[in-house]
Each structure stands twice: as C-alpha cells, then as structure tokens.
UniProtKB/TrEMBL annotation:
Protein name per Swiss-Prot or TrEMBL: DUF6268 domain-containing protein
Phylogenetic classification of the source organism: Bacteria, Pseudomonadati, Bacteroidota, Cytophagia, Cytophagales
Pfam family of the protein (one): DUF6268
Keywords: Signal
Extent of the signal sequence: 1-34
Domain DUF6268: 134-331
Amino acid sequence: MMLTFSPFRLPARSAVRLVLTGLTGLSLHVAATAQVTPTTPVYPPPAPLPGDTARADQVGRSQEFATPSVVGQGPSKGLVFHLESLSDFAVKSKLNDQTPSKDVSTTVTKNRRAFIKAYAPLWNHPHLKVILGVNYDREEFQFKDPSQSVFYQNLEDKGLKVIGTQLAVIRPIDEVHWFIARVKGELNGDYTSSELNVKDYLKTQAEFIYGWKRSPTFSWGVGGQLGYTFGRQSIYPVILYNRTFNQHWGVEALFPARVSVRRNLNPRTLLFGGYTVDGMNYNIKLRQPLANGLQTLIVRETEVKARLRLEREIYDFLWFGLEGGYRYNYSFNSLDQAGNEAKGGLFGPSRPKIIDNTLGGAPYASLEVFLVPPRKFLKKTASK
C-alpha cells in the first residue's frame, strides 16, 4: 500500500506551528537583508583646544570615562611647525632710565615668530593619560631707526628664545568627572649655549582644572593657572567650555585666555573665529648698558589677537593651518631684572618700569603644519 502525505491531514495544532515557524524564518530573513551599511562620514577622534592641555583620545566613545574634549573637535596634534609675521607698526618709548625721562619713537619693520612643539603620550590608558610636551620658540625684531634708543639697538636682530618642557595629566574620575593638572618649565631670553645660566632664565607655569562631562558634545570645568599670559607671573581663574551644538557649529574656550567659535565645514576642514590673549616674558642681557648703568632687563609683553583660522587635512596624518587677524598690544615694557618686586597689584607684585613702550596695532598672518595620529591607528584604538 502506498502512503501519501498531505498537510491538510495534519492536526490543527501542528498546522498552526508550521505556519508560525515559516513566518518567523521569513521575518528574520527580511530583517537581515534590510540592514544597510551607514554612509555618513565619521569625524576622527577629536582633539582639545590648540593649547597645551585638555588632550584625550576617548571622545565620542563610551562614557565610561569622562574627558574634557567633545565630538566635532579636530584631530590631536603630535608635532607642530608654526611661522608668524606681523606688518610694520609704530613703537613709542618713554625712557625712564634717564633724567629727565625721554620720549623716542620709530617703526618696527620686522617682528617674526616661529615655534616647534611636540607631544608624546608617556601613559595612555582610559582612566589616566600622561603627556610629555617640548617646545622651541624664537622671536626677532628689526627697527627702521634703532639709533633712537639703546633699547632698540639691543633688540635689533636679537634672537629671543624659549625652550620648554611640560608634563600634563588628564585623569577621568568616572563617567562624569575629570581633572587636568599641568606643570611647565621654560628658559626664556637671549641666551646662547655657551652662557646659559638656568637660574637667570627659568620661568615656571602650572595649571589645574576640574570639570564635568555632561554629554559627548558638552564638557566644562573651572580651575586656576599660574603663568605669564598677562605679562608677569600671576595666578588667575579659568573656565574651560567645550560644546558642539550640531554637526556644523561648536565653541572651544579656555576663558579668559582664548575663545573660539568652530565651524565644521566637513570632516577634513575646520574654521575658527575668536580671540586669544598671549603673554611673553624674556630676560635679556644688553650689548650696551642703559644710561643708568643697567645691563640686564626683563621684557614683558601682553597682546590680544582677533583671529580667523582654517585647518585642513592634506593627507591622512598631515594637516595645515592658516591664520590671520589683528594684533592689539596691551603692554611691552622693560623692567629691572635685579630690582625688588613691589607689593600690590591685581595679578601679583610688579617691578618699576625702566622703559615704557607703546606698540601700535598691526595685522598678522601665520602658517602652520602639523602631524596627527594616522586614521588607521585611530581605528585600531577605537576598536579596542
């Protein structure tokens, strides 16, 4: 006898099970075939402000450890080459080393700056990052008529140098809290290798910021800095504020030293607009003594720059930056290096001015080339 099979002869329960099994398999197949690989470009792991701290490579990843950086910032800078030049500007000087005081003036025909900075991680763990930084800066002046003052003659073609090293610690405490600590030592002045005396040229700086990571796009903190941003060494409060509002706009600030509005044109092009406050402090030995016999001076400079900056990827790990704007000089004074500090002042003690200079405003432009972590390296790091 031949046996035949027909689904219509199955019990009702078996037929229902068969139908449900088929529908389940069909739905799984449809869901699998519906998956699409996203095509939206992904920004590289962002970096902090162009300053020397607030660096981390965990941004945009798990919120297990908080960091000061936010999604949308550019890539972290490892090696930076920078060249900057100002147009001609007037300088007026009141020479307090003479009796009575004498006023002189001329034009600065050259004021150029260049620096090289490098950063390397000594320890790179999600809950602790230790970064070593080194830098070499050089600034030069030329005057239309340096014979107007012994001070101009001493600055003419003199290389004002800065050799520095710093150690920065970024410590995520938990998914919300973090802090940054940084110490820095620099040798500032007109020294040469044969006559360098560390004690005469050493300048020290320090920084501490405690902050909160509210989301991958918003981080802020408060703290204090000991440094030369306002000319002489002083302690002042700081507020860090990094926020990305959408895929195109953001703010990066370390107030009061710098504030920038960021525009993300695309994943490889960023535009910034804002201001920076910079302070320089040099110890110099004069080729010729002043009228009062002084042979050493401290030159303190504080300037404010309104700037517009473009950063663009050239190839994977190689980027460049173009910056232009207007420099307003707040102070450029010379003081007695050997004189005693006078007590008082909002930002700490001050010395009597030997030469009181007033520098005119001037447009400036700069070119920067910097290396960043290769994209392949960032992908490997993110996959861990």
